[in-house]
Write a structure and sequence with these properties.
The chain contains 11 helices and 13 strands. By secondary structure, the chain is α/β, with parallel strands linked by helices. The longest helix is centred in the first third of the chain and has 18 residues.
Length: 331
Amino acid sequence: MTEKALRLGTRRSKLAMAQSGQVAEAVSQVTGRPVELVEITTYGDVSREHLAQIGGTGVFVAALREALARGEVDFAVHSLKDLPTTQPDELVVAAIPVREDPRDVMVTRDALKLTDLPRGARIGTGSPRRMAQLNAYARSHGMDIETVPIRGNVDTRIGYVLKGELDAVVLAAAGMNRIGRSDEVTDFLSVDTVLPAPGQGALAIECAADDAELIAALAELDDPLTRAAVTAERSLLAALEAGCSAPVGALADLPPLSAPLERGDSRADRQIVKEMRLRGVVGSTDGSTLVQLSTTGPVPETHEAAMALGRELAAEMLAQGAAGLMGERAQ
């Protein structure tokens, strides 16, 4: 008799289905049980409003968490950057697998790089974080660009460029890689130009906090370095009291690994890592003001140490005026 299939709750988007399918295979390997995908529609998927208007925080997550709480699914896969920073007591993030490329990318007309875009170029993004940093970059490099708020799935966004309505759109490298469309990327944005969203490129596998057997099985997929990095980033976000749609960028990286990762070599030697560098940025969406700071310390050995790294950098950023740039204060 075969064991009952585990039910994995996922959003219906092409990207969510792709990344959940990859997790399903890995979970099936570690548990020896079949995994079936249960498609769930979230508020963020059906609302036509801009994310900044519907609050950003948790709009893609609530329906999945409700299905978990009701026992309709056994576990759920989220893009970590969509998860609110406060964790409900009845659920646990059992695994954060090895992170994909955290960078933002551009798809532009005529395969142009950011630096080659013509004066007055229109760049589409639904993210205040991306707008703030792109506008700041343009200001400091004498470029003339216009950031245009858009939303929709990858096809919709790239469609704006193909139809000539926009000169470029900004997307996450990880998403393009996971749906097998990285060959359409025309420019990888250096993290020195645009810092990604906290947790970008990482997935969170969440299940009920009282399911000890499943927690233990899923934990085999956890990557401690990725978990330490994203914990520091999300701690920074929480300490700035920012929602997912606030203009905050953060990246904790492990300097010896960063160069190979940016070359696309995820097999970089994971043994040589001694230090973690955490960078944070918050800015006004027009790019006129940015507060950007970094700190470097030993790789956090515990959850508390990673949280402390984020809180310390957030405190320095707040002391430099970050609070006034948050725009949307978390309710």
